[in-house]
Write a structure and sequence with these properties.
By secondary structure, the chain is mainly beta. Strands 2, 4, 5, 6, 7, 9, 10 and 11 form an eight-stranded mixed sheet that branches. It has a three-stranded antiparallel sheet with strand order 1-3-8.
């Protein structure tokens, strides 16, 4: 079983955008497959015992109009394994997830997977970044992570749907 990106969807706030107006795009996708299954408490415990207590995933997104990159984005999701004494968690080793520079402390494995592997990104473009005329915007997505006790280094990619809009000078 391998890892893959599923449900890559790009949505727009307007059908037309003027040069002085902002355009809000919403990008959402999930990272599924082997890595999602391997990211479990049992594997966290094994990895922690071997001093492998961090997971870092780099996500690169190119918002494109045709072949031209309109806006490149790069962001990181991290997970840190730690020893916990939280009475709500029945395990010795647990995880915290850093998403958009904010740490989260999930109370279940499914919540941890969702925080780390489900991406919902709001992207702000201005009308000046697009030339006048019709555009077909899409997102090229690349996700990579390194070797850990529970996974090999992987790079996966996908492309979102296209949204059509018109830029007006």
């Amino acid at each position: 079983m391998s890892s893959y990106i599923s449900g890559a969807t790009l949505e727009k706030s307007h059908d037309t955008v003027k040069a002085d107006q902002p355009l809000t795009l919403s990008l959402s996708f999930k990272i599924d497959g082997a890595i999602r299954e391997a990211f479990s408490q049992k594997n966290w415990e094994k990895a922690y015992n071997k001093h492998d207590n961090g997971f870092r995933m780099t996500i690169e997104v190119d918002i494109k109009s045709g072949r031209k990159v309109v806006m490149p984005l790069k962001f990181v999701r991290k997970a840190a394994l730690f020893w916990t004494r939280n009475p709500k968690i029945p395990h010795r080793i647990w995880v915290s997830v850093v998403k958009d520079e904010t740490p989260f402390y999930p109370l279940s494995e499914d919540e941890a997977r969702s925080l780390l592997f489900d991406v919902n990104k709001v992207i702000e473009l201005t009308g000046t970044e697009l030339a006048s005329g019709a555009h077909r915007l899409s997102a090229d997505i690349r996700v990579q992570w390194g070797k850990h006790d529970y996974t090999e280094p992987v790079e996966i990619s996908a492309r979102s749907n296209e949204v059509e809009l018109r830029a007006v000078a």
